[in-house]
Each structure stands twice: as C-alpha cells, then as structure tokens.
Design brief:
The protein is of the alpha+beta class. It has twelve helices and 16 strands. Helix 3 packs across helix 12.
Length: 418
C-alpha cells in the first residue's frame, strides 16, 4: 500500500519575498545612480551576474550546462530524466540604461520555482530547466536575441562569434575572456515546452488594471529605411511653388506610417523613430531626408498590408512633390503565435490562482520567439509602472512579481507532471 502523502499542488505558492530579494541582489551588479542597471552582455559585470545566478542554481541542487554561445541551462532532475525538460528562462544582460526587471525577472522566477519545489519536496515527472540566453538585448553586439537565435539555428555560431562591439572586441573573444564558452553545441539540447515570464514593457495591463497578461503571440515586425530626395535651395529667394522640399514630402509619408497602424487595429503599430535631414541648415530647404519606418501587427499578412499601403502613399507623395522616394527593407521578423496548449496552461493557472487577467500580445521580441520554433511555448506578462522599460526608472510591484511567478509555477507543473 502506497502511504506517500500526495503534495498539495493546488495551494502551492512561491516565496515572493525571497524572489524579490534575489532580484534586488542581482540588481546591485551594475547598479546605476538612478536606480537602474547597466550590465552589458559579456562584460565583467555580466560575468558577475552569471556567476551569482549559477551559484544560486547549484545551491538549489541544479546542474549547470553552458553551450558554445554562452547560454546557460540549469536543470532540476525529474522522475523520468529521459523526458525533455520543461524550460523557463530569459536573460540577465541589460540595456546601458536598463532596469531591474527586464529579462532578470524571467530567470530568477525560474529559480524561485525550483526553490519552491525543493521547499515542499515535490518531484516532477519531467526535469525542470531554467535558461539564461546570451545577448538578448543586442545593445553591445548585434543581432539581438543572439544566444537563442544561434540555439534555434536562425543564424550560425560563426556569425555570432564574429560580431564586434564599438571597440572591435568580438563575441567569441569576450566569451572566452569571461570564461563562458561551454562544450555543448547550441541546439543540441531538447526542450519539452518553454515558458517565459516578463514585465509587459508597455502600459496595457496597468491601463486595464489587470495582474496577468496571457500572451498569445508576438507581433510581426518590418523595418524599412526611407530616403526622400529633393533639391537644396535657399529658404528666402525660392518661391513655395517651385520647391522640391524633401522634408515636407517626408512628413506626409511619416504621417501615413502612423495612420496605417490606426487603419489596422487593435495591434497595428507604426513608428518613425530616426530622422536624418540634409544639409540640416536653418535657411536651406532640405534636399534629402532619411528616416526609419517600424511597422508591426499580429500577423504577417497585416504587417505586409500596412507596408504596401505606406509604399503606395509614398509613390503618391513623390509625384505630388516632385521628389524621389526609395524605401528599402532592412529587417523582418515574422509574427509568432504561441502554442495553444501553453497559452491555455497559463490561462488555467491564472484562473485557478484567482488573478485578474486579459489576453495580451507582445510588441517586443523575446527569446520565447525563437524557442517557439523548436517546442511548444508561451509567455506570462505582468504590469510595469507606466509601461516604462529600457529605462533606469523601470519598476514593478512586488505583488505582481509574485503573481507572475505563481502562474509560471503552476503552468510548468501542468506540463512537467507531478
């Protein structure tokens, strides 16, 4: 007769104070005067952060594996270690003016899940793993989401190794310098399912007074450079009707970038974030303007429709203003729909725990995008104050930090089995 007491999974909760304390301790590595964090990837500070996180993992009884691009995998064994692990994770590198929670929360929430399972003596059928991915931010080296991208074969290890920073230092050289070049080939690592918990980095949850965002996917992105060429001329003697004002023409196209997003709600996004004006002189009619176009939506079809509309408007503007317009795509990221079973696992966990929630989509890229190409994946969002991220004043409430980790715990347990 089996007299073993079945663990009370329904009432299982993480230790929110412990998770918060871990976040605050990690935030001291690279702390900035304004309360943020500057811990750029593959710097000495990044090494300190990695060392701390892996020490915590080992103290929790986890084994640690590092692959050749420096991704870290911290594993808690299960009853059946032949099963692929149920994984969670994110990144611990930051922007130059980053915050305490972006990425870091997802990694430390995973470690807190393991600590909680240890506290209650709960064994899972499949192993549990927590990952930290190299250079998610892309603030020192490009491409962004480098570690997960190499893992998912989106680009080669050699391409990533050759990337340089502004001082000419390479990814491979810096990985070797800080001692984080592992033996495992990126991607030679099975995943049963992947969850990532993250601050929203936007204002929607806070605006709707909801604690949890059940993330269904990530917006598709198209980046373009638009160059409008007219003719420089003196601002005084040149009559208005005879001008070929590149900046005036460019502003009409810029307005349509925003209008295109409004034409395709609710997830349409249109942004002009960078503008270069030539010759940029007070009394010279601009002869050339180059600006960025950032278009996003929930499906690739919608993003492509928005792009087609902006290009059509650009052709019309060129004819009306007697200028030349050239639009070139510089980057494209397909929309990623998360796996229905993982999205539903997050929704079920949220409902069981009694947290207010709403459907959400991510307007930013995350490592979960690449993981979703390899295994069932899902994400959990919590609010951040005023929707601000990539900023030293980035902030989140302790109760929301706890709630998101509780949802992560129960979603992972559903997939891992007890």
């Amino acid at each position: 007769m089996d007299t073993k007491v079945k663990p009370d999974i329904e009432n299982l909760r993480i230790n929110g104070d412990r998770l918060w304390a871990s976040l605050m301790e990690l935030a001291q590595i690279g702390a900035t005067p304004k309360g943020g964090v500057c811990r750029l990837t593959l710097t000495d500070l990044d090494k300190q952060g990695r060392d701390l996180v892996t020490r915590w993992a080992r103290e929790a009884g986890m084994s640690v594996t590092i692959d050749k691009i420096g991704n870290g995998f911290m594993r808690r064994p299960g009853r059946n270690n032949s099963l692929p692990p149920i994984m969670t994770g994110s990144h611990i590198d930051t922007q130059p003016t980053g915050g305490k929670f972006d990425g870091n929360y997802g990694v430390l929430a995973g470690i807190e899940v393991v600590r909680t399972l240890n506290d209650h003596g709960i064994e899972t059928e499949a192993p549990i793993e927590v990952a930290f991915w190299t250079n998610e931010e892309g603030s020192r080296f490009v491409p962004v989401m480098m570690g997960s991208g190499v893992f998912a074969k989106a680009f080669t290890l050699e391409h990533a190794y050759a990337a340089t920073d502004t001082e000419g230092k390479t990814v491979k050289g810096e990985l070797e310098r800080i001692g984080y070049v592992g033996e495992q080939e990126p991607g030679d690592h099975p995943i049963g399912a992947y969850f990532e918990t993250h601050i929203e980095q936007g204002p929607v949850l806070e605006d709707n007074d909801k604690t949890i965002g059940v993330v269904s996917g990530v917006l598709g992105i198209r980046w373009f450079d638009c160059t409008v060429t007219g003719m420089e001329a003196h601002a005084g003697p040149t009559p208005m009707a005879l001008r070929k004002d590149a900046l005036l023409a460019a502003t009409h196209i810029m307005q349509d970038v925003v209008a295109a997003a409004h034409r395709h709600p609710p997830h349409g996004r249109g942004t002009v974030g960078m503008v270069q004006v030539f010759p940029n002189s007070r009394n010279v009619i601009p002869g050339r303007v180059k600006f960025s176009i950032d278009l996003r939506n929930s499906t690739d079809e919608l993003v492509d429709q928005m792009a087609a509309e902006v290009k059509a408007r650009a052709e019309q503007v060129a004819q009306e203003h007697g200028v030349q317009v050239h639009i070139e795509m510089v980057s494209s990221y397909p929309a990623q729909v998360f796996h229905a079973e993982c999205v539903e696992a997050v929704a079920r966990a949220t409902a069981r725990l009694g947290y207010s929630h709403m459907p959400a989509v991510s307007g930013a890229g995350h490592d979960a995008v690449y993981m979703a190409k390899l295994a069932p994946a899902g994400m959990i969002f919590i609010p951040c104050k005023d929707g601000i991220s990539h900023n030293e004043i980035e902030d989140a409430k302790p109760e929301h930090i706890t709630a998101g980790c509780n949802v992560l715990l129960h979603a992972m347990l559903e997939r891992a089995g007890t």
